[in-house]
Amino acid sequence: MERTLVTDTVEKVRKKVRLEGWADTIRDHGKITFIDLRDRSGVIQCVGESLQHVSPESAIEIEGTVTKRPEKLVNAKIKTGSVEVQIVKLRIISPAAEMPFDMGTEDLNLELPTLLDYRSLTLRHIKQQAIFKVQAVLVDAFRQAMIKKDFVEFQAPSIISSVPEGGAEVFKVKYFEQEAYLSQSPQLYKSLLVGVFERVFSVNQIFRAEPSVTTRHLTEITSLDAEFGFLDSWKDVLEMEEYTIRYMFSEIAKKCSDELSLLGATLPKLSGKIPVLKLREAQEIIYKRTGKDVRKEKDLSPEDEREICKWSLEEKESELIFISHFPTNSKPFYVHPDPADPTYAFSVDLLGRGVEWSSGGQRLNNYQDILKNVEKWGLKEKDVELYLQSFRYGVPPLGGFALGAERMTMYILGLKNVREASLFPRDMERIDTRLSPVKEKSSK
Amino acid sequence: MERTLVTDTVEKVRKKVRLEGWADTIRDHGKITFIDLRDRSGVIQCVGESLQHVSPESAIEIEGTVTKRPEKLVNAKIKTGSVEVQIVKLRIISPAAEMPFDMGTEDLNLELPTLLDYRSLTLRHIKQQAIFKVQAVLVDAFRQAMIKKDFVEFQAPSIISSVPEGGAEVFKVKYFEQEAYLSQSPQLYKSLLVGVFERVFSVNQIFRAEPSVTTRHLTEITSLDAEFGFLDSWKDVLEMEEYTIRYMFSEIAKKCSDELSLLGATLPKLSGKIPVLKLREAQEIIYKRTGKDVRKEKDLSPEDEREICKWSLEEKESELIFISHFPTNSKPFYVHPDPADPTYAFSVDLLGRGVEWSSGGQRLNNYQDILKNVEKWGLKEKDVELYLQSFRYGVPPLGGFALGAERMTMYILGLKNVREASLFPRDMERIDTRLSPVKEKSSK
Lengths: 444, 444
Prior knowledge:
The structure is a homodimer. Chain A is α+β, with helices and mostly antiparallel strands. Chain A has helices spanning 112-117, 119-122, 126-148, 187-197, 235-255, 257-263, 279-290, 302-316, 367-376, 385-392, 405-413; strands spanning 16-29, 32-39, 42-49, 59-68, 83-94, 152-153, 159-160, 172-175, 178-182, 199-207, 220-229, 276-278, 320-324, 337-338, 341-345, 347-352, 355-363, 398-404, 426-427, 430-431, 433-434. Chain A folds into two domains: 6-94, CATH 2.40.50.140; 119-434, BirA Bifunctional Protein, domain 2, CATH 3.30.930. Helices cover 28% and strands 29% of the residues of chain A. In chain A, the strands form five sheets. In chain A, strands 6-10-11-18-17-16-13-12 form an eight-stranded mixed β-sheet, with helices on both faces. A five-stranded mixed β-barrel of chain A has the order 1-2-3-5-4. The longest helix of chain A is centred in the N-terminal third of the chain and has 23 residues, at 126-148. At the A-B interface, strand 1, helix 2, helix 3, strand 6 and strand 7 of A face strand 1, helix 2, helix 3, strand 6 and strand 7 of B.
């Protein structure tokens, strides 16, 4: 008999079906046993008499007949809540060992370390699955938004030969007899490819040797990168980013309504265009609202980010806000200064729900300007050789932005720790399993 | 004035347009100058009198009027061949330095090292661009094929803590105070995720410390990985792979006809189902056809691969062929032996055009069987801890396959070297720029 997916049973009342999946929860009422069967499509209640023992999370096959539930026993919370399956035959495909904790609860009430120690098991909980189904839609929606706008996908390399922007938080790789590094960003590659394809995007792992364990940092991140040329203005970058974000939100709304409601999450509120403030304007507002004078700081502190997001929601009914015009000398060598006041740059952060979601902006495209900055920033020409090569041959005004898939997932779903938004989070204490504690250096 | 894309000019005869792009080729006929302008959509001939000097590959803006070309001057080879633009205004957006070689030829007649030394420039040639436009469609088609079959995308990690399958060709990473490695394959992650999502896929960079420079090997590869559970038979893997490949081919045929014809490439011929031979059957055929007795070899040599592909095309009219049932002890610990003869395994290679395209097969899913093999293969349990954890809790029969994006691009387009199918190829001699030669160790 052909396998039927769980959610298709509602169309097969009074029919015989064969189901495959996992024994999600098992309720034993003496002779009668209820098994909630979970497959990739959903969960369904199955009921049978005098069944063989099944342990939770075993992979099983059930043959039986779909019946309508009595009106008062309908479970409106799940898609298959109007039916159940009368078990005729039960087969254990692959038995599960005894659970180290109860997986059958509405929430997995585990501390983060335990959640990660048992990652291949805890991910099976439908709320854990929901996080990564949203993430998959988010990532694909980014790509489809880009493709609709003629962006060409490229595969950004991970192994790089030099670290032009400083090597403090970079991982070293032993590359045969030489030293190489893991890329912290595809920035230089995506910019130089504007000279080739005009518009490019990539979805790639990037690496940061974050020496501390925080709720927002991972050593390996999935970066969603976009870059494009022939800008008429730096504001073209904002428009492209806003279009992309809105497209991603609309796809999540369309394809993940079940997951959002399961997780009690709502997409950020937007009304009209996403507001844009210059850094100094934002700081002025913060000063007026709180009395805290941050008007000379080169960046917003976490507290400032929360305050300006509060303002945005209260005054502009928007949970997202762009902040532009950071001091030029606080940014990388490729940043494009605003000709109206070159001490500030066409750099743009996107903030949402009190935190930074993305950064981007317009980049320098004039070869001589770039060359001057390479020197001014204290870099070596040979470390940015391929980049310089591109701009030597006519690259138009360009810009772009980068979004972190895990952080976006975290902020959209209201998760407390970015590790919850990474299937296999890496930090200085963990690569899947906990790393053995580093031996203390002998004290002097 | 709004920018018009080059290919949209054919709809704007007698209209004024503003174009942006690169000066692809420039032909100076005294007072009259012809400029072929290239943008992301195509190329168009523009013509003007007494123009300022423009160097090839400069980014330029042209304002002018679209006119129909006289019948005898129509260029049927390009989409805009029926029109040209009479230049009214020419502006240099970003000038290009003098070319190190002629970019305006039909083919870029460069040796591979030069092609790569000037990567950010040579990629601009439309034949180079075409390679990576096909690759982008290929990669996206893989993902869309998977999504249509309910596969969930996941982000496979690159940094791993141990190398269960041996460390000969693995890159080491200095991970804070410890040692970590770059992943050679997402195999263990995709298999353990079958316990979570049933069906998963990933598109990720994988890393091989190939100690030699060949035409088929890179140190960094884009791997297209699929894995799924609840197999009824190992042949389900073949069916899923064939479906996926056919979908990828059909998308390339639909979206890349211009690129294929520009590159003189044709998609592999398929008729009926892709043929399947067991390794021993293939070797018997090779013996009968050539007299060469390879019937006890554990794998096909490159020569054997060419011969069996020839047979497949001649006898089955198929440029692709599956080879199954390799010796179990020549495969990794997770391979599923055929119960009918456990010395051979449910492992499957896909060959095409004389070379290997992919490998895959059914994996062991019974926890005890896996545990036995971990010991038999001489691995440490703690090196596959997360993997074992998953299979301890009920994983159904599963299998999958992996395709290399660069190799597929290479074989579909008939390229001679896999480096031509990688935007930024890495090997032991090059990471973008050539690596400085390693100093010879002092001779004893």
